[in-house]
Amino acid sequence: MTLDAAYLRGSMAAILSVLQHSSCPENVIFHFVASSSSSANIDYLNLKLATSFPYLHFTIYPFRDSPVAGLISTSIRAALDCPLNYARNYLPDLLPQCIQKVVYLDSDLVLVDDITKLAATPLGEEAVLAAPEYCNANFTTYFTPTFWSNPSLSLTFANRKPCYFNTGVMVIDLERWRDGDYTTKIVEWMELQKRMRIYELGSLPPFLLVFAGNIAPVDHKWNQHGLGGDNFRGLCRDLHPGPVSLLHWSGKGKPWVRLDASRPCPLDTLWAPYDLLQTPYVLES
C-alpha cells in the first residue's frame, strides 16, 4: 500500500480489516511506500503505525516523487495527480529483489475476507498480474479520439481482448514484472501522453495499455469498487450483485469525509467499524 498523511485514516482502516479477517494475521507482512520528500513524514507514519499496531510486520519504503511528477498529465480530478498515486508503477524496483509476489491494495478499502485467498490467485504461466475484469464497461472511453484515430496507437490492442480493470486491487508477480521491464513500458506511455494527450484518467490508462487483455482473472467479490461515487458528483453507489470480500471506495467520495460531515452514504457504515481515529460520527443502534 502507499502511505501518506492525507489518506492515513483510510490506510489504518484497511490494515485493521486485513488483520481482523486473516486466519493467520501474524503471517501478514505489509510493505508501504511513502514519499521521500520529507523524512519527518516517514518518521511520523512509522510512529503512527507502530503505536496503533504494536505487533505489525511492516516496512516503509521511501519513494522519490520528483522524477514521476514530471511525467504526470492533469486529469479529471486533482487527487489522481498525486505522484504517490503512481508508486505502484515502480513496486518491483522499490521492494527487495527477494520479494516475488505481492497483493497491492489502495487505501480506501476494507476486506471482509481472508487476504490469503486473494494472494493465492493463480497467475498461470505468463500473466504478470491478476485483477477483477469488467468487460461490460465501455473500454474506448478511457482513451481520447486522438488515440483511436491514430492507426499505430489503436493497434496497441490488436490480438488482445482488453477489458477495464481497477488497479486498486491487484495480485502482482514482481519477478515476471522485472523480467519483462514493465515499468519502462508504462513510463513510455506516460511520456507519450505528455506529447499528445491520449487519455484523461490519471494512472489507470497506462496500466490498461500495457496489461489489459493479458491478466489473470479474479472474482469480482474481491473488488466491489466505485463506492466513492462518480468523479464529478460523488453520488452514493450500491454494491454490485453477488458476494463481497472487499469493499472499495474508489471515486470522489471517501467514507471518513462523509461520516465526519454527517452526510454518509448507506455503505459508509460498513467502513466505520474499522475507523481507528476519533470521529464525531456516532452509529445508530
From TrEMBL:
UniProt cross-references to SUPFAM superfamilies, sorted A to Z: Nucleotide-diphospho-sugar transferases (SSF53448)
Protein origin, superkingdom: Eukaryota
Class of this enzyme: transferase
Compartment annotation: Membrane
Main location (coarse class): membrane
Topology within the bilayer: Single-pass type II membrane protein
Name the UniProt record assigns to this protein: Hexosyltransferase
Species: Solanum tuberosum (Potato)
